[in-house]
Amino acid sequence: MEFDWSYAYSLLFDHDFWLACWTVAKLGFLSWLLAGGLGFFLALAKQSSIRPINWLSRLYIWFFRSLPLLVLLMFIYNLPQVFPASASVLTEAFYAGLISLVLSEAAYMAEIHRGGILAVPRGQYEAGKALGLRYAGIQRLIIIPQAIRIALPTLSNEFITIVKLTSLVSVISLTEILLVGQRLYTHNFLIFETMLAVAFYYVLMVTIFDKALGWLEQYLDVSKRKPTVYRLSSAEQAAIQKAPAATEKTASTTADSAPALEVRHLNKFYGDHHALKDINLSVRSGDVISIIGPSGSGKTSLIRTLNGLEAFSDGSVWIHGQHFLGTQNGQSLTAPHPELILDIGMVFQSFNLFPHRTVLDNVTLALSYHNRGTASSRRIEALTQLSRVGMVEHANKYPHQLSGGQQQRVAIARALAMHPSIMLFDEPTSALDPELVNEVLRVLESLAAEGMTMLIVTHEMRFAFNVSNRVVFMENGAILHDESPTDLRQSSDTRVSEFLSQLNH
């Protein structure tokens, strides 16, 4: 039998085939979208520390990855025989196929999403928490956008798989591409010509969707966007000049006689290791306290407990006389004033800027989340803080387009935008090249001159002794000295003199 070229060519314009393509497109896209959403929920559930939620997610993923799609299709389509109430939906082959594909593919996409979530650095979550975002806000604004971008190539491949899997739905009589072809060749027996047309339509659809998803991937790839210089308008310049300094806005908070921050009998254990030993620290408004000591002395652990980034085993933290954090006998006490997290700004060693957002968006994110002012006032606030740290011209850039020193200055502006009365710095210069250290230290010096209350974990001894009014020396999880820079320099403690002499060499 000769190949019928004219018949094969006519199938390229067959009305039933094009209707079937539209059905496959709808079924494939909806399945991918819904399975992606359900898969993300399952991925988060599998990461949950709540055991029942974690267990149920694992059970779902195990079961539906083990069940063949063909078996699931037949089960769902015939479910009305057992549950007649479902007949109004499941007797429609399209909806039965959609539900089956979503249930099955969600199990696979959950693992894809989980890989994306695990690839987002832990510091991103911590940065969101330090800005006062709750779990849902952190996921929605910070983690999920990055995780989707990371997982998008694999998710795109899964979409192509779903499009091809729609051919299985023909077993429940959905008029998709394969079923149209089968109906044709059972009448004319031109199997090869018909299946060639079926292959053409599948290849055409996969190619179109592959190109569309490739474009989406390119669009979301901020690393390929060209940096632009931000030019302040005359109105923005005028608004920035009128804006009060951060310390002026927090004056009402710091006016009372209570310490700005107080730590009472704080202890922290890592297993059997006693990392922080009965820490007591009182910080007055306007204090600039440098925390120094050898590596492993507990400096970073201490500063991360002050705003709740790390839990502690016993003790309490007070802000302006109000109870903020506390534990007793290893049990966390309910914080009566959780909103006080907004009164503590945090700057991290590794910057922890949000890579999928511009510099301006990094600074306005927390302002928007907490509904601080109007969109216009939030923008002016962000530009004001960026201007303070000399970064306003870079407002439209992304973090990867900045140097380390520039990223750290943006991180400082992001923290200052919430107008905290206390700033915490965890080794803000240790991740920088030597030539970039000074530009960050100059910003810290200007904040100290403005009267900002600051606690700084640092190895920069010149800054610690020239700018700070108090220096805390820690070793083995305990505060050994809390003195003025002059008194600490003159200390008779040989351990202090040995530490300082080693850093000076």
Care to describe what's here?
The chain has helices at 5-10, 15-47, 51-66, 69-77, 87-90, 93-119, 122-130, 135-165, 177-188, 191-220, 234-242, 246-249, 251-254, 299-305, 359-369, 375-388, 404-416, 434-450, 461-466, 485-489, 494-504; strands at residues 261-270, 273-283, 288-292, 314-319, 322-328, 331-332, 344-347, 422-426, 453-457, 470-475, 478-483. The chain is α/β, with parallel strands linked by helices. It folds into 2 domains: 5-220, Orthogonal Bundle (MetI-like fold), CATH 1.10.3720.10; 239-251 and 259-504, 3-Layer(aba) Sandwich (Rossmann fold). Helix 3 crosses helix 6, helix 7 (122-130) packs antiparallel against helix 8 (135-165) and helix 8 runs antiparallel to helix 10 (191-220).
Do you know the CATH architecture of the largest domain? 3-Layer(aba) Sandwich
**Roughly what fraction of the amino acids lie in strands?**
5-15%
Shape: elongated
**Integer average pLDDT:** 90
Helix tally equals 21
How many domains make up the coordinates? 2
Strand ordering within the main sheet:
7-8-9-3-10-11
Content-based structural category: alpha/beta
Biggest β-sheet, characterized?
A: 6 strands, mixed
Catalogue the unreliable spans.
251-255
CATH class of the largest domain: Alpha Beta
Instruction: Note the gap between the termini.
Output: 91 Å
Which superfamily, in CATH terms, is the homologous superfamily of the largest domain?
P-loop containing nucleotide triphosphate hydrolases
Q: Give the total of beta strands.
A: 11
What would the CATH topology of the largest domain be?
Answer: Rossmann fold
